[in-house]
Amino acid sequence: MARYSYLILLHSLFLASCAQVGVITGGEKDVFAPKPIEGKVTPPNASVNFTGNEIVIPFDEYFTLSSPSTSIQIVPPHATINAVAKGKTLTLSWEETLRENTTYAIYLNNTVKDLAEKNDSIMQYVFSTGNSLDSTNYDASVVDAYTNAPIQEVVVALYDPSTGGLVNFAQTDRAGIAQLTYLRPGTYSIIAFKDENNDLNPQATEEVGFLRDSIISIDSSGRLSEPIRLFAPKTAPEILSAKFEAPASFIIETNVNIENPTISINETIIDPENYVEIEQMKLRVFVDPMLINSGKIALTTNSFSDTASFRVLDAQKRGLIRVTSSQASNIFAPSQPFAFMVNDLILSVDTNLIRLRNSEDSTLVPAQISFSKNELTFNTKRGSTRQLRLEIDANAITTKNGGSAPYNGTVTLNSDKKYGVLSIDVSSYSTPIILQVIKGTSVLLEKPITPSADRILIPELEAGDYVFKIIRDENENGTWDTGNLETRTLPEQIDQYSKPTTVRANWEIEVELIPIDLKP
Fold it and tell me: Which runs of E-coded beta strand occur in 343-396?
């Protein structure tokens, strides 16, 4: 087998563009949103020596207000804003006396919507009770903690670390950049979150991101040196769905790995011989269709217990006993079992009704046929690439609920020369990691790796381009873990190697994965 090698370095990409939060003009975010008539705003935006308690903002069209008591914020929060809409004019007022020599910003957080399309935008009005405005600007980027992709429409907020009061906020643009403006130099706590209810406070159910050291010092205009990684809070383990599939099985899907399951239906425990794992989070359970109409499925695993309700009509129980390939493409690599699946538990197989032929000359190909649960396996000579024709007559397979429908199709048994091999050097990592090998948008392989491993061989890869992810598995549980705001736990770091590595058939490719923070 031919071989060549090259080296890949992890790199980060920082993007910049215009912020979506701007001055009172409403910006360019949504051309259909109502826009203030800038020259008629009283007092004008960015006024200094402000002494009043009212702002009048005419708009270019009629509008309606959306939750003004919660979506309008003044920062620092030294007053409660009252909003009155009359015609095309919005009046903002307050009763409190504002502090001297202070820059204030009033945010309309998707407050103003047009009457027809309900389009809205974030708007900002700034003024100072002193003779100058705070003028420091600061940018922060937000990326998805798992994909490292920039995320738009995320609130990045600064708070006073001593009081917890909101000081400033902005929303990220399409490049994931939030531009915080009109700041006073100082020390702040920073957090990013998807503000689903427009209250400018991160909720337990909202996606959130923060830094390991959440306190930042802003001395002058600049940018946060690292992106804030946004993550969804960890949800409680549960059954996501329990779908009946004719003639006699349920497909149970959960949001965590299913380990050592115990399943009961209407308080009757199902024999584990009737379970078949489809994926780590998906299980097929074969049942007696005569005994199920409605009720509850209970699942207990090492980590959780949950129930799901079901109702199955008699018409839903009628269906063919189908035979399908275990490989959607009908192509089997040397290490993959030459196996077919049946949608019911197999009781017996009549091998006289099953034939395996050479596709070129239709001669019979010897094969040993065996079965286990719902899987039918063919053991035949493997070596060079071969294309075969599989013929299964009706009723060749007897299951608990009848005989199988006929099957006729072509399968390919590939030789190892059809595939390339990746030899991946992971010696730069001295802690447990999880390697992901990705082709297109699919994760083809996910492999936990101990610090003692220097090089990992990945065989039987189809020709094409591959990229890699390394999950730094801090708790050594073999899976990526999200963060926790309450305990200030960050999501596990992911190193993204986005430069494609090209794999060719019958070649071994050597790759070295070196993250930037570990590069000598």
Answer: 346-349, 354-358, 368-372, 375-379, 386-392
